[in-house]
Specification:
Largest sheet: 7 strands, mixed
CATH topology: Lambda Exonuclease, Chain A
CATH class: Alpha Beta
Strand content: 15-25%
Radius of gyration: 16 Å
Helix content: 25-40%
Number of strands: 9
Order of helices and strands: EEHHHEEEEHEEHHE
Number of helices: 6
Number of domains: 1
CATH architecture: Alpha-Beta Complex
Structural class: alpha+beta
């Protein structure tokens, strides 16, 4: 599915785009509006992640790679949940988790799958830990607000950058640097970590 495709009145988005937006909203803008071919290092990292997913799914209970599609927050969310248990969505990540809680983008991605599939609990399984989180009403509101921001970016809004050490590895670094640091003051600074 093309990012940001419109189906009826609903904008179609992938829950993984929420993860990208939380990492860096401007990166999502570039991926949507200035797409490019992935380099060999990115492809190798993606392949290693697929192997990690396969190994975890092989030894885990639940149904793996479950299609998740449904309307939520004014958008049509469509993607594949890594693993679905009777009571939870399990999002498998090949990297390490933060010291406390989960990475905010992983929380948004797993929550989107959970709400679309009618689950009220998420589990994010990192290489070094596993975190379980019950979803509450405030999480639903938070996800709807994130989807509103994501829709704006897909529709053409250029958000401010979220500078960090990964910027030096970003394939869009030159574009981003040329655009400068400016951004609207109202655009929220999305957190790095979600603890509750």
């Amino acid at each position: 599915m093309k990012k940001g495709a419109v189906r009826g009145n609903a904008l179609r988005v992938r829950p993984s785009d929420l993860r990208t937006m939380a990492f860096c909203p401007r990166l999502l803008f570039f991926e949507v509006h200035v797409p490019r071919e992935r380099g060999i290092a990115e492809l190798l990292r993606l392949y290693a992640g697929k192997v990690w997913h396969f190994l975890i799914e092989l030894f885990s209970e639940g149904e793996d790679e479950v299609a998740a599609e449904g309307a939520f927050g004014g958008a049509l969310l469509k993607g594949r949940a890594d693993l679905v248990r009777d009571d939870a969505i399990v999002e498998i990540k090949s990297g390490r988790g933060p010291r406390e809680g989960v990475w905010y983008g992983d929380f948004l991605q797993a929550s989107a799958y959970a709400f679309v599939l009618g689950k009220r609990k998420i589990v994010i399984k990192y290489r070094d830990k596993e975190v379980e989180m019950a979803l509450k009403e405030n999480h639903e509101i938070e996800l709807v607000e994130a989807i509103k921001l994501l829709k704006m970016i897909i529709e053409g809004y250029l958000p401010p950058p979220k500078r960090n050490s990964w910027c030096s590895k970003c394939p869009y670094r030159e574009f981003c640097d040329a655009l400068g640091e400016e951004g609207d003051d109202w655009f929220p600074k999305l957190p790095w970590v979600k603890t509750s």
